[in-house]
Amino acid sequence: MAKIYHxxxxxxxxxxxxxxxxxxxxxxxWTEIFPQSPLYLFIPQDKDLRTEYEAGWKITExxxxxxxxxxxxxxxxxxxxxxxxxxxxxxxxxDLNISDREISETYELQDTRDWKLSQRRRSLKSNxxxxxxxxxxxxxPFDWRAYYHHExxxxxxxxxxxxxxxxxxxxxxxxxxxxxxxxxxxFCTKYPVTDCTVSVATRERTYLFxxxxxxxxxxxxxxxxxxxxxxxNLAQKFVHAIREKLGYxxxxxxxxxxxxxxxxxxxxxxxxxxxLKIDFPRVPLTSSDRLFKDLGAKGEALVDLHLMKSKKxxxxxxxxxxxxxNAVTEVTYKPAEQRIYINRNRxxxxxxxxxxxxxxxxxxxxxxxxxxxxKARRTLSFDDVLHYQKVVIALKETMQIMQEIDRLIPxxxxx
Length: 415
Prior knowledge:
Residues 61-404 form the Type ISP restriction-modification enzyme LLaBIII C-terminal specificity domain. Keywords: ATP-binding, Helicase, Hydrolase, Nucleotide-binding. InterPro entries: Type_ISP_LLaBIII_C. It comes from Aerosakkonema funiforme FACHB-1375. By secondary structure, the chain is α+β, with helices and mostly antiparallel strands. Among the domains are: 1-43, no CATH class; 67-213, no CATH class; 313-401, no CATH class. The chain contains 16 helices and 19 strands. A 4-stranded antiparallel beta sheet has the order 4-10-8-9. A 4-stranded antiparallel beta sheet has the order 14-17-16-15, with no helix packed on it. The longest helix is centred in the C-terminal third of the chain and has 27 residues, at 382-408. The chain is globular and about 75 Å long. The protein starts with a strand and ends in a 7-residue tail after the last helix.
């Protein structure tokens, strides 16, 4: 069989030119590599570490029902910070007394290959249940927006998966298949997400993994094999593997919390960094009931923070100060003062540099949240200010819990 060798060269352009002038294929220091199925990567990898990592369960093997988040092709139309504004837009979209041309020009809506404005307006007009499709969407980390989840205005609604997040009391993991940078692409939601909720659009895509699966309300004629019961989105082989490890089957929520904690371990992210860049994350299982429950408790605390329902969020650690209104016209962080200015005079105070710089997925959370509102020329309401102050707490607590997770884990591989 043919052998495959690898070499790389780092440095300035001049250094690279000089090296290549002085060497040829016979004098370059090559490293033999062994690309393996299924990815056949042409780069060196730590084979022992890869074996250790691949002993874990890939998240798609654990939660087989999943998809990318919704892709609307017209975010500016179907999302809004203000539900009443979104409702007005949809009402006008359905009003056939308004011409297609006026709707197109007013809302910058254009026909695509698979979406025709006139056809979709008539379709939505004929829907007597159209008002029931207003919901919320996790647009970006800690950024929930009003959303109209209907196929007549959303090009790729991913109904087969997102419908499970339109029910009460569900929970979903958000992650990506690959990343361009350090793996930080984990969040949770109880609402639909976009395909860029924790990932930037240039390469990554956000995937949605609901914990529970609900019967399809649109399917009035079920076959004998379709259930009317709520089911868990946990593969039986994975559930059996947990039972073999622990001697019992934990609740679906307990399993979710354990997974969430593992994915937030800084050591896990660093140790398996090269593998987390190229495929869905994997979950190592433990045979220690104590460790499983302790990590689950940390995962639950993280979920409560990320869903904004933790009691810790009520003890504010920042304040809004300065003269003038709350119009977001600039976003400037001054580390010496620990202030984030939203305009020339108004600012949030008491935000440390590590909290300001904290990333979830492809986004610096505090910066992104404000800059999206600057772009939209928003003036922060009382609720907006309070929400932002709670996000600061959530990020600070997240960083602390991540360190606590690492202290709980005796080492990798997890036993």
